[in-house]
Amino acid sequence: MKPTCILILFLIGWQTDTYQEQRNSMVASQLENRNIRDESTLQAMRKVPRHRFVPKEQQRYAYEDRPLPIGYGQTISQPYMVAFMTEVIKPQKDFKVLEIGTGSGYQAAVLAEIVDKVYTVEIVPELANQAEKRFEGLGYSNVKTIEADGYFGWEEFAPFDAIVVTAAAEFIPPPLISQLKEGGKMVIPVGSPFLVQTLMLVEKKKGKTTTKSLFPVRFVPFTRGN
């Protein structure tokens, strides 16, 4: 093999190893140190290349402990928040999960590493298209994307074992509650846009829903269609 080819392969391998080291460090310092314990969630966070879900100019910050802008007034959530919202729904291999607010696609990719099917809804056309291409490029064939108003969920594939909402709603949309399977869980930030909201855990038991306040959060607003 020519020396130039060896150098290129070395550089590619070095970059890959660097990103893996960054993910391992992220999981250890940002997740395990904050009591994220679900092993399937930790494994998914170690595996999914977060740098592939942010703009090129943001890739150097991909594994830092903070959200990052992805354009169109949207952000990719802080790694801890993604891990917490994954863990709190107690994901299982046979789950069918609905996500509202695809954004970059990172949360959906983390879920796709664990569950059987992920259905994700994004209202911004450009983000929906970008995310769909990322899923294809990274081999996430178990993720299905649609450009639509997330308020109405995705009735065609309901009911869902769990629902993850990644934008702040002023109230819990009734269609999402109706699409949640008996015994299912939904995690959703609730509160006024641009202010501190409350992350809520919603559970459906015997046709009734219970809610539990988890902790204060800041999410981008839940955008509605015209």
Q: What's the SSE blueprint?
A:
Blueprint lengths: L2 H29 L7 H9 L20 E4 L2 E3 L2 H10 L7 E5 L5 H7 L4 E6 L2 H14 L4 E5 L12 E6 L8 H5 L1 E11 L6 E9 L2 E10 L9
Parallel strand pairs: 3-4, 3-6, 4-5, 6-7
Antiparallel strand pairs: 1-2, 7-8, 8-9
Q: What features would you highlight for this structure?
A:
226 residues, alpha/beta, Rossmann fold, seven-stranded mixed β-sheet, globular
Task: Please provide a written account of the structure.
The protein has helices at residues 3-31, 39-47, 79-88, 106-112, 125-138, 174-178, and strands at 68-71, 74-76, 96-100, 117-122, 143-147, 160-165, 180-190, 197-205, 208-217. It is an alpha/beta fold and 226 residues long. The protein has a single domain, classed as 3-Layer(aba) Sandwich (Rossmann fold), CATH 3.40.50.150. The strands form two sheets. Strands 5-4-3-6-7-8-9 form a seven-stranded mixed β-sheet. A two-stranded antiparallel ribbon has the order 1-2. Helix 1 packs antiparallel against helix 2. The longest helix has 29 residues, at 3-31.
